[in-house]
């Protein structure tokens, strides 16, 4: 109503929506500052600020639509600014989705894993698997050949980009099934080793799943925060130019 009244009186309502939109962007960046100021409880809890962040972020869609009006941006700076805003806004909406879904998926796995420790934990599993197979070589070469042919790459290399995009347990089920089929060619002591290898396969797959899911959150946050500050800087330039050409300076 405020903007409509301004437009009726032949004022520039776009300046009002521009100020409100820029103020909203500045407020949205303050969430990161609140997370660092954990020792100041008087400014509200982090969860309260997160709720405000979500509501203001969603409301900015409407403010942006009011600001540009019923037209498509046509200037180079305007197009660049609009694209930056859409990247930030859509990545924020995506973040709202993944931060609700990914924790539930990870809670299915019993063990919690710190993202930075995943490479070292994966290396420990690879070393344990190799040591088991080398020890089993004393009595039989069946497990050793199977390890070289099917398990060495699985344990010693990270998963593919396709797995990171769409993680699944297909390889895990396939390898465990092959180990179970191999049991009929093994002595009892060798079967004990094969069962331990199956446990390590599951642990390695769990680590890979953690890395894929947590990595998705980290990449999203990097893009969202990086683009937000880029958007603020370009918005300042846009605002100065708009005021200059509109007679506001």
Describe this structure in words.
This protein has 249 residues and is mainly α. It folds into two domains: 2-109 and 224-245; 115-214, no CATH class. Helices cover 79% and strands 0% of the residues. The chain is built from nine helices and no strands. Helix 2 runs antiparallel to helix 3, helix 3 (46-68) runs antiparallel to helix 4 (76-107) and helix 4 runs antiparallel to helix 9. It is elongated, with a radius of gyration of 27 Å.
Indicate the topology:
Elements: H1 2-8, H2 13-36, H3 46-68, H4 76-107, H5 118-136, H6 142-156, H7 161-165, H8 170-182, H9 188-245
Give the total of domains. 2
Please tell me how large the radius of gyration is.
27 Å
Helix content: over 70%
Instruction: Outline the biggest β-sheet.
Output: none
Strand residues, percent = under 5%
Helix vs. strand class: mainly alpha
- Distance, first to last CA: 26 Å
Tell me the number of helical segments per DSSP (H or I, 4 or more residues long). 9
Principal-axes shape call:
elongated
Estimate the mean pLDDT confidence: 86
Task: Count all strands and give the number.
Answer: 0
Poorly predicted tracts of residues:
none
């Amino acid at each position: 109503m405020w903007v409509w009244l301004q437009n009726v009186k032949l004022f520039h309502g776009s300046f009002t929506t521009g100020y409100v939109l820029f103020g909203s962007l500045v407020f949205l960046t303050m969430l990161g500052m609140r997370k660092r100021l954990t020792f100041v409880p008087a400014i509200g809890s982090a969860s309260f600020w997160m709720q405000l962040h979500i509501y203001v972020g969603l409301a900015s869609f409407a403010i942006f639509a009011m600001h540009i009006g019923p037209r498509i941006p046509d200037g180079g700076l305007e197009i660049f600014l609009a694209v930056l805003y859409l990247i930030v806004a859509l990545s924020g909406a995506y973040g709202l989705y993944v931060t609700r879904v990914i924790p539930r998926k990870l809670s299915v796995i019993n063990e919690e894993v710190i993202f930075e420790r995943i490479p070292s934990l994966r290396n420990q599993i690879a070393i344990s698997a190799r040591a088991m197979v080398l020890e089993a070589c004393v009595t039989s070469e069946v497990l050793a050949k199977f390890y070289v042919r099917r398990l060495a790459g699985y344990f010693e290399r990270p998963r593919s980009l396709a797995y990171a995009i769409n993680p699944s347990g297909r390889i895990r089920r396939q390898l465990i099934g092959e180990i179970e089929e191999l049991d009929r060619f093994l002595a009892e002591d060798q079967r004990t080793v094969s069962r331990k290898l199956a446990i390590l396969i599951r642990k390695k797959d769990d680590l890979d799943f953690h890395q894929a899911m947590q990595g998705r959150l980290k990449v999203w946050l990097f893009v969202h925060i990086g683009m937000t500050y880029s958007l603020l800087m370009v918005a300042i330039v846009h605002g100065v130019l708009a005021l200059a050409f509109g007679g506001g300076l």
